[in-house]
Design a protein that fits this description.
356 residues; alpha/beta; 7-stranded parallel sheet; 6-stranded parallel sheet; 12 helices; 40% helix
Length: 356
């Protein structure tokens, strides 16, 4: 079974730093390969994923330069990828919007993973393509949509890439884009209230430079609040693995939040605000806590070193959010779609004997 995994052309697979969708595609590709499937990843030429790779653009293009320019790149890359995949792949799995328009012209089954927060305009667009199998990454996300063919598959990661650290250090961690919706400023407030150092890692995008300069930078002293810059896999292991807890004071309905399960894979509990998928990912008292205020977040952070056992936090992640669990669910879905497509062709032939 050959599966085309089409990524946007902007960030390598797997990503060197930021790139949630690209991280997902990398984990899924390896998981499918380990199950005996043949994934083909359509990406850019800087990608290093160790499965078959195909690309139109040799270089990554992040951060994006402008909406019109980058939309043209995305459309061109995706049109080429769909046309190429239709020749020798059994399922085409999209992870960007432009590919949906080509599903009208190709008989190969399409899967589309919805990676973004609910947008009414996009939902209206999706309903023009009812033949596509949509996958939501949380039940919260699925309840907001109305496409006829939907199911939820939670993200999973390769736990072998994340190291369990049993002996934690007395500091808190925050990893994510430095943006108001991620609540970086609230993480600082909670850490100060808890009397614990905070280490912050993440990208400062140009659009949020003023937010960083006015609400984050003034608090950075290198001792109580430290900004360590962008975090690759090694840096995530170091930062998350040794932290007492990771703060996730989200201010929007996060569709999933991969960093939560990355922290859990390191045996580090997640102290979060509710929103979107959080209640599906964080199990109260097992892998973290869900708080309603900065004060409560500070209190939970103070007690995290005694409230959670790192090995149990990691075991929870392995049971629910491993690469193997995710890949098996997608493989089952691909098989269903191929079987349904074969049955449809057989039915058409039986109804029209001249077709043979």
């Amino acid at each position: 079974m050959r599966i085309a995994l089409i990524a946007p052309p902007f960030i390598p697979v797997p990503p060197k730093n930021y790139g949630g969708t690209e991280l997902f595609i990398g984990h899924l590709a390896r998981g499918l390969r380990d199950l005996g499937l043949e994934p083909v990843v359509y990406t850019n030429g800087e990608s290093t994923i160790d499965v078959e790779r195909r690309w139109l653009y040799g270089e990554a293009n992040w951060p994006i330069k402008g909406e019109i320019y980058d939309s043209l790149l995305d459309m061109n890359h995706t049109a080429w990828a769909v046309a190429d995949a239709a020749r020798d792949c059994d399922v085409i799995h999209l992870n960007n919007v432009p590919g949906l328009v080509h599903s009208r012209f190709v008989d190969t089954p399409f899967v589309y993973t919805v990676h973004h927060v609910h947008e009414p305009e996009l939902s209206a667009f999706y309903r023009h393509y009812p033949q596509v199998q949509y996958v939501t990454i949380s039940d919260f996300q699925r309840r907001q949509e109305k496409m006829p063919h939907m199911r939820t598959v939670h993200h999973g990661i390769d736990l072998d890439q994340y190291h369990l650290v049993e002996k934690k250090q007395s500091y808190l961690a925050f990893i994510g884009r430095i943006a108001p919706v991620k609540g970086t400023h609230l993480a600082i407030q909670a850490a100060k209230r808890a009397g614990m150092p905070l280490k912050i890692a993440g990208e400062v995008q140009p659009i949020f430079q003023d937010y960083y300069d006015t609400q984050i930078k003034p608090h950075i002293d290198g001792r109580n609040v430290e900004y360590v810059g962008k975090a690759d896999l090694a840096a995530k292991n170091e930062l998350l693995g040794h932290a007492t807890a990771m703060l996730f004071p989200i201010q929007w309905d996060e569709p999933f939040g991969l960093v939560m399960i990355e922290a859990m894979a390191c045996g580090t509990p997640v102290i979060a605000f509710p929103g979107g998928s959080v209640q599906e990912v964080v199990r109260e008292g097992v892998s973290g806590a869900i708080c309603r205020s900065v004060k409560e977040m500070a209190t939970k952070a103070q007690s995290a070193s005694t409230a959670y056992r790192p090995a149990e936090v990691r075991a929870y992640a392995a049971q629910n959010f491993s690469r193997e669990v995710m890949a098996a669910k997608y493989a089952a879905l691909y098989g269903e779609l191929i079987k349904k497509g074969a049955a449809s062709v057989t039915g058409k032939a039986a109804a029209n004997p001249l077709a043979a």
